[in-house]
Amino acid sequence: MGVLGVIARHMDAIIGPGVMLLYPLYASIRAIESPSNLDDQQWLTYWILYSLITVFELWCWTILQWVPVWPYLKLIICLWLVLPMFNGAAYIYESVVRKYLKFKVDFGSNQPEDQRQILQMMNLDARKSVERYIENYGQESFDRVVKAAEREARKQH
């Protein structure tokens, strides 16, 4: 079978710890140090989902040990949750958790109440874009954009 066969057979043990633990640990530390709360949300959600997968795995181990593809399936799920091109953890948060559990999110006291309400209704990508815009151009510039959008909306009605 050779070296490639051994690597393919043990892919989950070779890549798994890096994908499921090391990279998320590194990204979580970066998220803690960054000023944005949005990446914190991605990684907190990842750790919650990873914990649930681990509890499921421990609880169902007698069944899962008879499923030969389980380690690879777990690796694929964790890759989808972790990789920035998929942002699976953020997707799960936006489409499942946020949909069924409504928490009041504080976006800081520097935004007026109406803008905070708008930010709460936005999805993760839109909030990231707004945060980046404010970071690059300042709150005053963002306020002008919002006022211009409000004027345009009034014209259409």
Task: Fill in the keyword field for this structure.
mainly alpha
Task: Describe this entry's structure for a reader.
This protein is mainly α and 157 residues long. Helix content is 79%, strand content 0%. It contains 9 helices and no strands. It has helices spanning 2-9, 11-33, 38-59, 61-64, 70-82, 88-100, 113-121, 124-137, 139-156. Helix 2 (11-33) packs parallel to helix 5 (70-82). It is elongated and about 70 Å long. The mean pLDDT is 80.
Brief overview:
This protein has 157 residues and is mostly helical. The chain has helices at residues 2-9, 11-33, 38-59, 61-64, 70-82, 88-100, 113-121, 124-137, 139-156.
List the helices and strands and how they pair.
Elements: H1 2-9, H2 11-33, H3 38-59, H4 61-64, H5 70-82, H6 88-100, H7 113-121, H8 124-137, H9 139-156
Helix pairs in contact: 2-3, 2-5, 3-5, 3-6, 8-9
The total count of helices amounts to 9
Low-confidence stretches: none
Q: Tell me the overall shape.
A: elongated
* Protein structure class: mainly alpha
Distance between the termini: 71 Å
How is the main sheet built?
A: none
Which percent range fits the helix content? over 70%
Mean pLDDT: 80
Total count of strands: 0
Strand content: under 5%
Order of helices and strands: HHHHHHHHH
For the CA atoms, what is the radius of gyration?
Answer: 21 Å
